[in-house]
Specification:
The complex is a heterodimer of chains A (116) and B (139). Chain A is α+β, with helices and mostly antiparallel strands and 116 residues long. Chain A contains three helices and five strands; from the N terminus they run αββαβββα. Chain B is an alpha+beta fold and 139 residues long. Classes of the chains: A alpha+beta (116), B alpha+beta (139).
Chain lengths: 116, 139
Amino acid sequence: MLSTLKQLVSDIDGAWAAAISGLDGLLVESYSATDIDLSLLAAEHAGMLRNASQAYTQTLSGGQPRELYVRAERLSVYLHPIGQNFFLLLALSGRSNLGQARLYGRDAAQRLETEL
Amino acid sequence: MRLDTLRSLSGVRACALVGEDGLPLEMQGELGDVLAAELASLRASSERVGRRLGTGQMTRLTFTSDLIEVVAVFTGSFTLGAALLRGTDTRSAQQALARIAAGLGAPGGLPGPVLPDGAPQGNTAQDSPVQSSAAAERH
């Protein structure tokens, strides 16, 4: 799993961290090109993904979210669910390639689902 | 659709119009989204090379592999490209790309890039009308 995360950060233009987290917010595995602690990132985004899942499945009848992207002034994050209980998190800089993040993230999530 | 003329050309396997973020505005073909993402990446790399070498503004990118040839042109902050079967005469595709790119550079063609504070810069062609004819000449 760690090698997959390292490869994602290496291959995606502008990516600086990748992590696998449970929907409970606990980190399973992580890799960062900086010394920033990813625990808080994972915990906050687990909450976002849980809320999005509840909104889409129960209120909006839109089905399970397949991906979530948040772009802020100093931080952007792409999320992709892995199975029912986990998700892949990619932390991106301002000039990142979201197209790569989506495609590589989707492929990685499919591979990782067999390992979790 | 802007890319319809490309899709109809012989040998074209995929084509895409993509922004700097790698997300396609339009795409055709099974691997259109992959082509879009990688073209954005290649453009960023080629522009870095151009800066380091002092070559001036990059306008076109082509490469050939065992199976495909890729041709792409840069217009404003967008990249327009096509992947063709190896051995296909790429001249028609390159001409089509140039025509589409010139149209994109005209007023109302494409939005301008978004500034770092999130505000849109505006249509680059409206800001500089001479770019549309200059763009056609460059491509």
